[in-house]
Amino acid sequence: MTNEMLTPLTFAEFAEFCSVIEKISSTLELAARIASFIKKIDSDADLYDSVMFLMGRVYPPWDEREVGVGVGLIYEALKLATGVDRRKIEDWIRETGDLGLAAERAVSGKKQLTLFEEELTLRKLREVFDEMSSLVGEGSQKKKIRMLADLYITASPLEARYLTRLILGEMRLGVGEGIIRDAIAKAWGIENEVVERAYMISNDFGKVAVVARNEGREGLLKMKVQLHIPVRMMLAQVADSISEAVEEMGKVAVEWKFDGSRVQVHYGNGKITIFSRRLENVTNALPEIVEEIKKGVSENVILDGEVIAVKDGKPMPFQHVLRRFRRKHEVGKMVEKIPLEVYFFDVLYWDGELIDRPLEERRKVLETVVKEGERLKIATQVVTSDVSEIERVYGDALEAGHEGVMMKNPFSPYVPGKRGKHWLKLKAVMETLDLVVVGGEWGEGKRSHWLSSFELACIDPETGKLLTVGKVATGFTEDDLQELTELFKPLIEYQEGKRVIFTPKYVFEVAYQEIQKSPKYESGFALRFPRYVRLRDDKDVDEADSIERVARLYESQRKG
Amino acid sequence: MIDAIVEGDVLKAVTKAMVALVSEARFHFKDDTLHSRAVDPANVAMVIVNVPRDSFEVYKVDEEKIVGVDVNRIYDISKSIKKGELVELILENETTLKVKFGSVEYSVALIDPSAIRKEPKIPNLELPAKIVLDAGEFRKAISAADKISDHVIFRSDETGFYIEAEGDVDRITFHMSDAELIEFNRAEAKSMFSVEYLKEFMKVAGTGDILTIYLGNNYPVRLIFDVADGKAKVEYILAPRIEAE
Predict the structure, then answer these.
(1) Which residue in B59, B113, B116 sits closest to B88, CA to CA?
(2) pLDDT, tens digit (0-9, with 9 covering 90-100), for A314-353
(3) Active site residue A421
(4) Which of A26, A270, A390, B114 is deepest in the core (most CB within 10 A)?
(5) Inter-residue contact A536 to A508 (CB < 8 Å)
(6) Catalytic residue among A79, A257, A408, A418
């Protein structure tokens, strides 16, 4: 049956569903409702779009396309479509705390009539988003505003609420990845783990839902790691001690824990793609690494490694690597200023998927497919069960200016996206928290053009809700503040006096003296003497530290 | 096979009229007219273009045909046609339209008409007031209104036809009495419209062109321009805005 013959899902039906589940807080009920909603959808395209849109996504994170519409453009489009100006909408945001609700209100007083009634469908929205994301250069902003205004003219108030939130990437439904996974599992009677695995290797819940519906459990199990589509990176738990790791694993594969940034390199079909830890495509920012890979790596592989910045034989702080990743223009200049090297430590694919093979076997493949070069290395690995031997490696790593060691079970598979016991990390520095920046304040006096304080939140991973835990205003250099101000300015949703609210996008690593209980913040905890350590723009919002971790750290300091 | 020769100004006016609302459109080569119409993506406005057979120097249409055209492209090309110069349109196959003038010949790729949004029916509107005036005067009123507001009110009663706009501090009233209008039926009507659209429509009108307006009460308006020395007709239908409560 072709898609044209099926009943298209209207955006009105979708928005209506969103408004129903927005009021539900039970994660079980949310998953059940979403399951029955997506089960009833006819076409593959509508199923794909529904699943993505429920999570506030138009494209998977690794897709280079983006709609590219910020808050500013939304204000202008609303003005065109409804005649309501920015000032008024900002007033409404202050009242309701949400641009989506403000847009709903603007559209409900809509003054422009149309010649014909036309229903917005998900298909139509997808077409408009695809066209917007293809626009570049002069006049593209203006065209996007016009296209968005046309959508607002056609939209009902409720549709306007969710359209706005969708564009901002924040649906406020409390639907995180966990709930979508459970909903897909429930809809077609498949175990959560099978759905989870399919997601971890494809990073595209839309696709997972379509495969689950059409081919069921078998189809999901048949999904394999593919070249140029990123796989979630395997993560490590914090080890309390070396002896604990030895006890746990017996034999331990020990590597340095580099102070750099994680990369996944795909090389195949004559093409090289490099993904960051956030699964963003950073290939263009790393031309010298691409050249080295062409020279030293066999084709048809996916490698896992760490890029570090090295000057005069010494690693430069991790921050510099991220500066390289963010670079879009004049990349050449930066290549000289911040020279990079890549250390590979794992291989996920070589003429086929390898993730289920044990580490010791993958390591052998790694040594076959990578020929070391000037900037291209294989991370040294020592396999031992001798605690003092591991202590020696740990000392060497710190000596060389790196963070500590990774201790890996040599018999373990590569488990994408999992922070499990197969990989343990031991770091010299104290525990810090990675928190989402949700708001801020402008400075005073000569710093009044800079953001000088930032409001932080941890995440409830089930619902995706962000819960505030405090503000950080120390630990910044002037350069930091200048750079952060530039970075956060486009994310300002609204402003009241000095206070601003951001669309959540960036994560800060923050040190603190102590965690305290506090009714002042939504998490119920507050940080004592928080200090900014660095911007973790290798981390996504949903990878920030969870409320559970904050609670655990609170408990552990009481014990200690 | 289609072969048509017409004044360059006609092609320019017709494509300019379309680009105000859409970038692609379907052109119907009918026995007696070249016709096209389209609606903007938000369904707020419609444009209807007609060039009667008599306006062409040559109009050879073996078989009626619908072709899909990138109107931006043809408009761009037509801008370089000199005043008074003739242009020839030749359609030999489904995929290419040849546009010849002076010593140049453009081959423009056509778009599959089925890939272009199908034009809706022309709405049947009963509009009490009929106002005929010089398009140049209307144009002046709209560009003045554009400076102070994003909407205007069109109003007619026995004292004449009014265009009114109100800004934060300023107010503009444009008034033409029965005597100043070319034709007027003195009927009462009043509707409000977006300047954003009107100012796009104005671009087709030159001083001396005749504009016929059909106006109702909180209802769409029809604006019919006679352009290129009366050789082509461009009609816009625009949905109204309603007063905020």
Answers:
(1) B59
(2) 788 777 787 788 777 778 778 888 889 999 999 999 999 9
(3) no
(4) A390
(5) yes
(6) A257
The CA–CA distances, whole Å, from B56 to A399, A502, B99 equal 87, 60, 15
Amino acid A341 reads E
Per-residue pLDDT tens for B90-116? 998 889 999 999 899 999 999 999 888
Give the phi and the psi of residue A387 in degrees, each rounded to 5.
Answer: -60, -40
Domains and CATH numbers, chain A: 3-56+174-222 (no CATH), 71-168 (1.10.3260.10), 235-427 (3.30.470.30), 433-559 (2.40.50.140)
Q: What is the number of structural domains in chain B?
A: 2
* End residue of a domain, out of B54, B77, B111: B111
Report d(CA A164, CA A101) in Å as an integer. Answer: 9
pLDDT tens per residue across span A147-169: 999 999 999 999 999 999 999 99
A341, A333 contact by CB (below 8 A): no
B113 vs A265: CA distance, rounded Å: 44
Q: Which of A320, A318, A327 is nearest to A284 (CA)?
A: A327
> How many residue contacts between A and B have a Cβ separation below 8 Å?
57
Cβ <8 Å between A115 and B120: yes
Q: How far is A5 from chain B (nearest CA, A)?
A: 17
- Domain edge (last residue) among B77, B111, B145: B111
Question: Could you tell me if B218 and B240 are in contact, meaning their C-beta atoms sit under 8 angstroms apart?
Answer: yes
Cα A74 to chain centroid, rounded = 23
Mark yes or no for CB contact A113/B245 under 8 Å: no
In this structure, is the dihedral angle defined by the CA atoms of residues A301, A305, A307 and A313, taken in order, positive or negative?
negative
Q: Of B106, B90, B104, which is closest to residue B6 (Cα–Cα)? A: B90
- Please give the helix or strand (H or E) that residue B152 lies within, else none: strand B151-157
CB contact B22 to A (< 8 Å): no
CB contact under 8 A, B239 and A115: yes
- Contacting residues for A275 by C-beta, under 8 A, at least 6 apart: A62, A230, A263, A264, A266, A281, A282
Q: Which residues of chain A have pLDDT under 70?
A: 1-5, 428-430, 558-560
Report d(CA A459, CA A463) in Å as an integer.
Answer: 8
Query: What CATH number should be reported for the domain holding residue B135?
Result: 3.70.10.10
In this complex, which of B42, B192, B243 lies closest to A153 when CB atoms are compared? B42
The complex's ipTM works out to 0.89
Number of Cβ within a 10 Å radius of residue B175:
13
DSSP annotation string for A82-114: H---HHHHHHHHHHHS-HHHHHHHHHHT--B--
Q: Say which DSSP state A251 is in.
A: S
